[in-house]
Design brief:
The protein has a domain at 65-132. It has three helices and two strands; from the N terminus they run αααββ. The protein has helices at 34-55, 65-88, 99-102; strands spanning 121-122, 131-132. Strand 1 and strand 2 (131-132) form a beta hairpin. The radius of gyration is 37 Å and the shape is rod-shaped.
Length: 141
C-alpha cells in the first residue's frame, strides 16, 4: 500500500527508498555547477564593460594625436583668414589683425575656434603663422 501522505518516501511499487536515493543531488552530469555559472556571469560583465566603452564613443585626451590634428586644423583656418583679411584690405606682411577683424557672423570665421587642450591661440602678424599655447600644438612645414 502506498503512503499518500509522503509519496517521496516510497517508490511507485510501494517499496521504501534508501536514504541515499532520497537525497538531493548537488551536481549533475548535464547541468551547470556554481563555477560554470560564475564564469558565465563574469564573461557577460566583461562584455558589458567593453561594450559600454565602445558605445560611449572614442574619447581621446586633448593632447593625443587627434587633439593635435584638431588644433592644427584651427591654426590653418586662422592663418587663411589672416591672409584673406590682409588681401581684402590691401595690407602687407607684418599687419596685426584683431579678433574683431577675423571672427564674426559676416567676417572670415563665424566664431573664434578653441583649442581642445585649453590652449590659447595667438594670431601673430600677417606672414607669421598663428600659434597655440597647448603642449606640442604646432604645425610643420
Amino acid at each position: 500500500m502506498k503512503n499518500t501522505a509522503m509519496p517521496w518516501i516510497q517508490g511507485e511499487t510501494g517499496e521504501r527508498r534508501s536514504s541515499a536515493d532520497s537525497r538531493i543531488k548537488t551536481t549533475t552530469s548535464n547541468g551547470f555547477t556554481r563555477l560554470d555559472f560564475a564564469m558565465v556571469v563574469a564573461s557577460l560583465a566583461l562584455v558589458a564593460i567593453l561594450a559600454s566603452r565602445f558605445l560611449a564613443g572614442r574619447r581621446q585626451p586633448a593632447w593625443s594625436l587627434e587633439g593635435w590634428g584638431f588644433c592644427v586644423n584651427n591654426l590653418v583656418k586662422i592663418d587663411s583668414a589672416k591672409e584673406n583679411w590682409a588681401a581684402d584690405h590691401n595690407l602687407k606682411k607684418g599687419a596685426i589683425p584683431r579678433d574683431s577683424d577675423l571672427f564674426g557672423a559676416s567676417l572670415y570665421i563665424n566664431t573664434k575656434p578653441g583649442c581642445a587642450a585649453g590652449g590659447i591661440y595667438t594670431l601673430n602678424p600677417v606672414g607669421v603663422r598663428p600659434t597655440c599655447s597647448g603642449y606640442g600644438h604646432t604645425w610643420f612645414e
